[in-house]
FtsK domain-containing protein (Cutibacterium modestum), 761 residues
Amino acid sequence: MLRSLVAGLAARVDPQHLTFILIDFKGGAAFTTLDQLPHTIGTLSNLEPSLAFRALQALNAELKRRQQCFADAGEGIDNIDAYLATNPAEPMPRLLLVIDEFAQLAKEYPDVLSGLVSLGAVGRTLGVHMILATQRPDGVVNDDILANTNMRTALRVQSREQSSNVIGVPLAASIGREQKGRAYIKLGEEDITPIQTALVTGVSGSGCSQDLHVDPMVLGNAPEEHAIRASSGEASDMDVLIQWITEANEQLGFGSARRVWPEPLSDHVELVLEHCRPTTHREQQVASSSGSTILDVALFDDPEHQRQYVSGWRFATENLVLAGMPGSGTSSTLAALALRIADTYAPGEADIVILDVFTASLDRLEKLAHVRGYAGPGSTNESRQLQKRVLRYIAAELERRSARPHDAFPPLFVLVDGFATLREGYSDVADTPLLESFYQAWAKGPAMGIHCVATTTRLKALPPAISDLTGQKWLYQLADTSEYHPTVDKDNHPANLPGRFVSTSRAHHGHVGLPDDIDAAVTAINEFWGIDGLTPLVQEFPKRVGPEQVAGYLASGNEAWQIPVGINEADLTPYVLEAFAGEHVLVSGPARSGKSTMLAAIHQMLVQQSPNTKILVGAPRRSPLCQMLPGVMSPEQLVDVVETQSAAPEPCIVMIDDAHLVADESQVLARVLTLPDTPLMFIVAGRNNDLRTLYSHWTGQIRKSRLGVLLVPDADYDGDLLGVRLPRHPAATMSEARGYGCQNGAATLIQGVTVSTEGHR
């Protein structure tokens, strides 16, 4: 009956005077092919709460639009007939909402049905009308529906009560099973009439018979059936009628009717990048159009204004939180933001640092020329060390920019994937300052050009320092739906699609655009700018440091020597020991820890940077130094030369490897080391376990300076060699030439300077 009614109306009235919105809760089967009518401007099937909520918003917006049109048309225009009498320039067709199986709608989404009924009541004078249909009227045909439906039709129903619920009398229950299409129509309290409805889904046939069959128009028993069954693939009467209606409207020049709402957001939206040509073109796209303070990455749905628009992260005003379960699209959103930044700014005009601590889903972005620092996931020392370095860089950059408020800095975009993971991984007391510094950057950064965006699986994992200061939140599919409250209505939750979210600022749904191939987009953007990559702002802690990297920091003066011995883990700057007159340097470590190669590196820097300084080198025969440097003396030879040199006025550097094996039976070394104004500075290396047990050894005088390097140390005991306390859990895994530079009672994690053992002689 519904199909016949809709098709019949479409055949008699053009789409400039009548349009349909078809709502079928049973999956859309009731209105198959009717959506092809030029009159049909919207369909809804298998309702999701968000789609129903969207429809209500758009329909309410349509009522407001019509009311405004009436007001603009002049005084006294308060209904559609009066408005149409003014011959408006733009057609305003009547809008008919056809809702099949509203009982199911009432059961699952009663608020939606109530909203539709209220809308129909208000909308009649505005030209908005409604047809409700159901097979099960029990308990759903309430007073509101009865009050707002002045025409009611009951076909054959199962019980007298069902008939009475609809038309007020039990007559429809007496309709026989064979009386298909028989119904009772109620137009008033006493105006109830039996009718026979038409069938439009049958097949009239195409035979040439001229016989005319006439049935008596007496509504008694069912008339004899004469319908012709459709053969396979043959069009039904409704199919033919729809085709004729469509062709007739085209011939008459009727354009498409104005839609109440745009098409729903697509499952896939294309991110259009200026410097990357897409391989395919999707119907829904996101191109950059909002200006320099918004990163356009999403297509938004605005049913209240019956439109869709492109927008994104308003980074100039505040930071952004992306909350959603794994797979909901939060990480992809970070990728889209990074690509938009790189497509908009030249390398150097904007910098990106990435804390990819969740699933390494952003590792492909590390190749972007704009990415100046990347730290991946993991709990190993190396992973955490790089993560900490990124956090320290952010804090240092905030401090630098705060100290120079009038200087212009390029925007720094900080992308954090997995904030909950980051927070849990740095919950120890020792790591608290790092998180606190990040919270400071989150709070103060936007004013300084530092813009942060972070993903989280749970909003509750955000501390107030983040959550309370963030007005821009995009909520994707959340495991705990209570986290949508109170900013998002319970019927406005986003669909369970990767990339679909609802913005808390406007409660608009959005879908993030992505290119077809992220790797190809990265390559294309880099090729356009012609830059493979700038010097990283955040670098990994090196596993080897050569003399050429730190030699420029070596200096000798009247009061002290500046001796670079490696790279500081905290900021990757050269670590320099300052040795005043009478102070000496100790390098300790176990076998193959890099002691000998460090002495060789220091020797090389001294020769290059201070060529006039006399250097004496001694070591036992088995020391690697004997193979790496020329003129290495035996311990006995060295003792004799040191005794002579101690009386000379010019400065002299004495380098001794494997010092724990040098006995100093003559006590020359011990005596020279106690001279108050000795021109000699000793730089010696020895094995840590042995040095700790040589209580009366001459190296005890070296240790008193509390100056040197502890390579691959024993955290429990080696600190005593230089009077420092070593951390039990170093920030980086210990390896060759890695350890602690020690001076003034402080231990600093460094990668020590060394030379390669190959090619040195």
About this structure: The domain at 547-752 is CATH 3.40.50.300 (Rossmann fold).
